Amino acid sequence: MTNFVLVHGGFVGGWYWGEVADRLRKAGHRVEVIEQLPSAGTDPAALGDLAADVEVVKLAVERVGDPSSSLVIPTAEW
Predict the structure, then answer these.
(1) What is the DSSP-derived secondary structure letter of residue 9?
(2) Residue pair 40/10 in contact by the 8 Å Cβ criterion
(3) Phi and psi for 48 in degrees, rounded to 5?
């Protein structure tokens, strides 16, 4: 079993990974989907920065368990 952390890009949210996450779970993998990165949103005054995004991903990797068996899949829209 592999742990997957799925990270959305700047113009979408965690829903982007819905079908992929479902397929991975059905195959027996553990999946953590980042629902909303701090740097993504519609209110410029409330947006976080890259450091905040990194912290969210780091915490997600910690939640899924052993980082050596985890795979983080970001989108290319960063």
Answers:
(1) -
(2) yes
(3) -90, -170
What are 28-78's pLDDT values in tens digits? 999 999 999 998 878 878 889 989 999 999 999 888 877 677 777 777 555
Distances, alpha carbon 19 to alpha carbons 24, 29, 31, 35, in Å: 9, 14, 12, 14
> Which tokens in the block code for residue 35?
């629902």
Q: Measured in Å, how far apart are the chain's first and last C-alpha atoms?
A: 28
| Contact criterion met (CB below 8 Å) for 16 and 26 | no
pTM of the model: 0.82
Sheet of 70-74, strands arranged across: 30-33, 3-7, 70-74
